[in-house]
Structures are given as C-alpha cells and as structure tokens.
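Hi P.,

Sorry for the delay on this. The queue was packed all week, but I finally got your sequence through. Input first:
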Amino acid sequence: MTSTQPRTGTPRPDTDPAAAAARRGRNRPADRGGSRVFRWLATGAGVLILVILAAVAVFLVQRAWPALSADPADLADTVSWFPEDTSLLGFVGPLVFGSLLAAALALLLATPVAIGIALFISHYAPRRLATALGYVVDLLAAIPSVVYGLWGGLVLSPLVQPLWAFLGEYLGWIPFFAGAVSPTGRVMMTVGVVLAVMILPIITAICREVFLQTPRLHEEAALALGATQWEMVRMAVLPFARSGIVSAAMLGLGRALGETMAVLMILSPGFLYSFQLLAAGQQQTIAANIAAQFPEANQTGVATLIATGLALFVITLAVNMAARAIVARRKDFSGAN
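Then the structure:
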C-alpha cells in the first residue's frame, strides 16, 4: 500500500521561485554587488537624516535649558530686553503668533498666484513663452533674501503706503485694516507681500511639475465630452494635483516661517497679539527677533533666544508632518507620488 502524505521530517523541495526568493530575503539574486551597496547607502542616508534631526533637537534643548529652567524674574534681571512680569512662555507666545501670521499671510497671497502661473505655463502658454517664463520664475528663487529685504524696505514700503492708507480709511471696520496706518509702510502687510514673492517660485515650480503629470487620457476624455479648456482643468487637472498643491504650499509655508533678513529689514517690531496688519509696532517673528537680539545677548539671553528657536523648530516639524499626512491620504490618486 502506497501513502500520498509526505513523510514527517523530510524537507519538501521548493517549487515556487518567488516564495523562495522572498524567504531568502537579502540573498535574492537582484540584491547583489552594486545593488546591495546602493541599498545600504540609501538606508544610511535615511538614517543620517533622522540622526541629524535628533541631534538638532538635543542641541536646542541643551542650550535652551538655562532659560527653560530659570525663574522669570531672574530672566528679566539678567536679560535687558526681556519684558518684566512675564514668563518665558509669555515672551515666546507673541513671537509665535507673529511668525504664524506672517507665514499665513504670505501663503494666502502667494498660493492663488502660483497656481495661476503654473497653469498658464503648463496648459495655456506657447511652448517658447512657457519655457522662458519658467526660467524667470525659477530665477526668483536664486535671489538672496537680503536683496528682498532691501527692496521691501526701500522701494516697496513707500510705494504701497498710499494703498495701505486707502484700505485703512475705507475698510478700517475690518479688524485686519483697523488702527492707525503707519506712515512708513513698514508693517506686517508689507512683510506678507515680500514673503509671498519669496515663496512664489517654490510653489509655482512644484505645481507646474504636478500639473504636467496629469494623465493625458484624463484631459482628452474631458475634452471629448465637450468640456472647455477651463472645465478640463477644473475636472481633470486640479483634482489630480490637489495633493501636490498642498505639498507645495506647505514647503512655501516652511520657507516663510524661517525667513529672517527680509522681515528684520522691513518690519517695525512689536510684541502684541494683534491682527492689525497696517499698524506699526504690533508683531515680530521668531527668526527676526533672534537676528536682532543675538549680537548684544549675554549667555542667558542666548539661551532665551535658543528657546524661541526651539519653538520654531517644533512648529516647522509639525507643519511638515501635517503636510506629509495630507499628501499621503491621496497620493495613490494624484501626482504627489
């Protein structure tokens, strides 16, 4: 009598090559020689990013600890520019508010313009004009921030001051335009315009590339159904590029949050929780405050400034993590992947 069951303890031959390759793991044929070296280099690069990020966090916490653990009264006695009767959190709060307000204002002004420029370059402009315009937009990203600061302080501020005065006179009932309008134009609104110009190339370049990745069949299907050019863009291009637009906007937001010299050279600073965009002496950003106070700061003052930098680090990390989460939700159906 012959049994059809395999005998216990006898190894079975592997008849599935894919399963055998998966069980072999790192010894699979495709992972040898240069492929294996490249895999280890890529893994090392990814781990290095995490190590650098952790090292920056440890450095900030270590250097900011004297200010984090100090009594607020001692900070006011030791640091000349630290306000009295205020805790460290009360000092950092208005700076965080000013940084978020400037970045949000820049993002609000730049994103619609960047999307329009990217759509014009990718779907409307003639090829030669689109190429030339793409070069010009990319060139804006290469201009140093100090040049933007000089332009904003010496040229743009006097130029837009009559417009701010007009808004303050006729639209002063809106909280953003309330208060006494600055006669110099060195206000948060001007800073927002300059930051919008600075982040415009980043958002435009990414949106343009995402728009160009829209499947041609989607666009042709919309046109075949009788859609106009704008309807095709609205139904096929923009939904496909939604995650890419969010990613581009978050990158621009990160740039605006950390901008230093342009804000320092334009804004008349203040330490208030104020939404008045046309009044002087209302807001200040973290990066500009660090640049302004660092040269004259003593040891405790440097620790206080680094503590504000730690707050900016946490905000930037949170913004990027939120952006990655938003993009990951729709990456399989868009050009973000």
